[in-house]
Amino acid sequence: KLRTTLSTLSESLVMTFQSEHWTKLTEEELAEWQALAPNFSPKEIASKGDGSIVVIKEALKALQRMRDIADRPLTINSGYRDPAYNRAVGGVLNSQHTRGRAFDIHIANSEEGRELERIAEDVGFTAIGRYPTFIHVDMRPPKSNGGGYRWGSWK
């Protein structure tokens, strides 16, 4: 499954929505966004710092598939982060959030985290971080052995 994801990632990583501010996406971009991810708005995914937005379309589609499978709204704590905002919130230097391929999704409890982890794996996210109040998912390139990345634990 991860090798297929790697192939898909290499073909699609250059396909992004990108704007200096989410309100400046064109009508065409907004229509495409609505078709790919009708349950998420650009404002939800944009940086909470300067409002800029970069999101890889394949990651956005996977997020929508997660929502469809979960069959309930997903609250995005963090999507894209501009570099200054990433530093302000203590994000790592090469954060996947600054590359437009990561989302932190609010969870109410570890059971919900486990459920979303299974779904995230099924829809192609290659990295999953487990935290007490959220799950981090991203589409970084898989490890050289084809494996994904996991950290943290559910209580």
Structure, described:
This protein has 155 residues and is of the alpha+beta class. Helix content is 38%, strand content 19%. It is built from six helices and seven strands. It has helices spanning 2-12, 27-36, 42-45, 57-70, 83-88, 110-123; strands at 16-19, 53-56, 76-78, 102-106, 127-130, 134-138, 149-152. The strands form two sheets. A five-stranded mixed beta sheet has the order 3-4-6-5-7, covered by helices on one side. A two-stranded antiparallel ribbon has the order 1-2. The longest helix has 14 residues, at 57-70. The radius of gyration is 15 Å and the shape is globular. The protein starts with a helix and ends with a strand.
The number of helical segments is 6
Strand neighbour order, sheet with most strands: 3-4-6-5-7
Silhouette: globular
Estimate what percentage of residues fall within beta strands: 15-25%
Counting helices, strands and paired strands, the structural category is alpha+beta
Distance from first to last alpha carbon? 27 Å
Helix content: 25-40%
Radius of gyration: 15 Å
How many beta-strand segments?
Answer: 7
**Biggest sheet layout:** 5 strands, mixed
Query: What sequence of helices (H) and strands (E) makes up the elements?
Result: HEHHEHEHEHEEE
Defining traits:
alpha+beta; five-stranded mixed sheet; two-stranded antiparallel sheet
Short structural description:
This protein has 155 residues and is of the alpha+beta class.
Helix-strand layout with pairing:
Layout: H1 2-12, E1 16-19, H2 27-36, H3 42-45, E2 53-56, H4 57-70, E3 76-78, H5 83-88, E4 102-106, H6 110-123, E5 127-130, E6 134-138, E7 149-152
Parallel strand pairs: 5-7
Antiparallel strand pairs: 1-2, 3-4, 4-6, 5-6
